[in-house]
Structures are given as C-alpha cells and as structure tokens.
Specification:
Elements (H helix, E strand, L loop, with lengths): L3 H13 L6 H4 L3 H8 L3 H17 L1 H11 L1 H19 L5 H30 L4 H8 L2 H20 L1 H23 L31 H4 L3 H22 L1 H7 L4 H28 L2 H20 L4 H30 L4 H18 L1 H10 L4 H7 L1 H13 L10
Helix pairs in contact: 1-7, 1-8, 1-9, 1-10, 4-7, 4-17, 4-18, 5-6, 5-7, 5-17, 6-7, 6-10, 7-8, 7-16, 7-17, 8-14, 8-16, 9-10, 9-14, 12-13, 12-15, 12-16, 12-17, 12-18, 12-20, 13-14, 14-16, 15-16, 15-19, 15-20, 16-17
Length: about 400
C-alpha cells in the first residue's frame, strides 16, 4: 500500500485538530465571554478580527519554514502550540488579553496547521491531489459536526474557562502521538514518488521538485485572481461560521435547533469533499472555481431566508457544500498553478491574504446586528461579491500551466 494514504489519514486527523482555532468553535464562546468580560458584540468581533489580521501577517514566515524544514516537523511543533493557546485563552481577563489569545489560536490552528496539512498532502499526491485533499479536508466537517456540540456541553458543564482547558488537552493528546510516529514531509524523503507511481531504485536520485518561485508567481495574473476569489470565499465563510447560530436564532429558531444545523453542515461537507476533490482532478479548474463562488452566494441568500427548521436544513446543506468547496480549493489551487518546489512560501503568502479576509469577515454582520437590528439586509448585500468574482474568473482566469520536473 502506498504510504501516502497513511500520511493522508494523519493529515485528516490534524485537520480535525484545527477546531480550537476555527470560527465554528470560537464563535460559541462569544456569548459567555461577552457576559463575563463586559464586552459588546462588536468589541468581541473586533478582538477576533484584529487578532486574526495580525496572525495572518506571520503566515508567509511559516511558509518559508515549511519549505526549509518540511511540513512534518512543523506539524510536530504546531500541535502542542494549538493546545497551549487554548489553555491560555481560558485565562482571558479583558479585550487585549482576548485579542492576543485569539491571535495565537488563529495563527496556529486556522492558519499554520491547516496550511501544513494541505502542504504535506500536496507533496505526497499529484495526479490524485484533488481527491486526496478532499479526503484530508474531511477533518474540517467532522470538526464542524463534533466540536460545536462537544464545546457547548463543556461550557454548560465546566464553564467557558475550563472548557478551553479541556479542548487544549484533548487536542494535544489526540494529535501529537500519530503525528510524531507516522508523518514524513515528502515521498522523496523515503525513496518514494507522489501517487505511489514508482519506488526509487537503489542509488537512483529523485528529480528536483518543480515549481515557480514566489517572485515569479507574483508576476502572474492567475495568482491575483485566485487570491481575490479565495479572499472573498474566506471572508464570507468565516462570517457565516461566526454568526451561524446568531442568524438562525434571530429568525426564531430555538438555540438547540440552530446549533444542530452545524451537524447538517458538517455531514454534508463530509459527504461532498471526496466528490469535490474528484471533480477537481477531472473538470477544468477554472469552472470549478466559478461554481464554488456561485455556491458561496447561494449560502448567503439561503440563510437570510431560513425562518423555520426546514429552510434552515436547506441552508445547512448548501453551506455544507460551500465548506467542502472552500476547504478543498485552499489546498488544491496553489500546487495546481505553481508547482511543489516553493509551495510553502507561495501558499503562505496566499494564505496570509485569505486569513486577512477571515479577520474582517465577522465585522459586517456584527455591525449590522448592532446598528440595523438584523442580519438579513447585510447578508443579501454580501451575496453580490462572489457573483462579481465569478464573472471575473469566467473571463480572466487562465488555465494552470505549472513547470515540469527538472
């Protein structure tokens, strides 16, 4: 059996472990934190957004470290970092402390660990990369399905501070042992090739990895269109994750029913990710990206119309497809267009811009509820952005043309 499948299983587990740094988990702490710390919703969202923005600026440095040391070694360091950041968050006493804690969670969990999971999967798979990334990204919807109810239970039983401690310990104990035991950064490091096509013969040197440099990528039109489109998707998906239950509760749904839609979204995303990945391997990349932006717009419109359980389920399903698309694309598009040789640095630069989008994502909806008293008008305005971006992709995004191996 090709060892890449073992790598893929551990990467999927690590992807699940990004939960403490993800919006769908952090957003559940907003209400109890707001009540105890005496902060407004806009203050909480601003702390979250500004911390995420600062964390984003560190991601290009993480990308360079990935290229230098390999994603396996970085994952070994990041996993305990995510756990410790969750434990430190339990000590928050005010806005500044909260912003710092959120920054650590977002940089290590949502940014660095996700980026390394995508990087190591992209290194081990080439022709099957889309399918492999779809499997790897299953950790994210499983997190969506498991982390919110688990977190709500922990908050109810232990309080929000001890809930953070429990989540930190669970993350370290569940993820670190398999990462240390099984991960290798690249197939060439152990005498293999991507996809398991061929084992290197004794004494045979592997070809050097191919890929554009960051400076070359920054001169390409495709880089900026990809970044703009994924910036849009990251911003809007984060906005929906953070205010997911708040929007549904404002439409009259019970808190338990609203939270259960996370499970609908998670199950849908889990079912769709391998399908999306397989489609990426067979359908022209440009049109898959176009479709993803249309689904993003549909998510925003459908949640604005979700006023009962049935319509909330419809939204949950559409948003699940949205999650499957976004999480698979983030790992797939960089190596597809720019190759593997300098993947970490290019990925880090692109990921920085995406996390900037995530950092400001919650602000429009938080502002709308504080000033307009409802989310719906803002949701419908935001739905125009991915439609405009889809038009740009259709007319201007070129086909990928990465360099071949040396």
């Amino acid at each position: 059996m090709f060892y890449g499948w073992t790598i893929l299983a551990v990467a999927a587990l690590a992807m699940f472990g990004t939960g403490p740094g993800q919006s769908h988990l952090i957003g559940l702490f907003f209400d109890p934190m707001q009540a105890e710390l005496g902060l407004s919703r806009t203050q909480i969202s601003t702390a979250y957004g500004s911390a995420t923005l600062i964390a984003a600026l560190l991601l290009p440095r993480m990308g360079r470290l990935i290229d230098k040391f390999g994603p396996a070694r970085m994952i070994w360091l990041i996993i305990p970092g995510v756990g410790l950041a969750a434990i430190v968050t339990s000590l928050a006493t005010g806005w500044i402390f909260l912003a710092i804690a959120f920054g650590a969670l977002r940089f290590l969990g949502q940014g660095s660990l996700m980026m390394n999971c995508a990087n190591i999967t992209s290194q081990w798979f080439d022709r099957k990369r889309g399918f492999a990334l779809g499997i790897m990204a299953l950790g994210f919807p499983i997190s969506i399905a498991i982390h919110p109810p688990l977190t709500q239970w922990l908050i109810a039983e232990l309080g929000w501070r001890d809930a953070w401690i429990a989540l930190g310990l669970i993350t370290i104990l569940a993820l670190l042992p398999p990462a240390l035991l099984f991960l290798h950064s690249r197939p060439e490091d152990v005498g293999l090739k991507p996809d398991g096509d061929k084992i290197l013969a004794a004494g045979e040197a592997s070809k050097s990895l191919a890929g554009f440099t960051k400076d070359e990528a920054l001169k390409m039109r495709a880089f900026y269109i990809l970044v703009a489109g994924m910036f849009c998707m990251s911003l809007l998906m984060t906005a929906l994750h953070v205010e997911f239950t708040g929007i549904l509760k404002s439409h009259g749904l019970e808190p338990g029913t609203a939270a259960s839609m996370f499970t609908v979204t998670g199950i849908t995303a889990a079912l769709m990710m391998p399908v999306i990945g397989r489609l990426l391997d067979t359908v022209p990349t440009k049109w898959m990206f176009f479709l993803g932006l249309l689904v993003q717009s549909a998510s925003l419109i459908s949640v604005s119309l979700a006023t009962n359980t049935a319509s909330a389920v419809i939204f949950g399903v559409i948003f699940g497809v949205n999650n499957a698309i976004t999480m698979t694309y983030v790992g797939y598009l960089w190596p597809r267009y720019f190759g593997r040789r300098h993947l970490g640095e290019i990925q880090g630069t692109g990921q920085m811009i995406l996390v900037v989008g995530a950092s400001i994502g919650p602000l429009p909806l938080a502002w709308a509820i504080d000033n307009w008293g409802n989310y719906d008008d803002m949701l419908r305005l935001l739905a125009l952005a991915p439609l405009a971006m889809a038009t740009i992709v259709a007319f201007l995004l070129p086909a990928p043309n990465p360099p071949s191996s040396d």
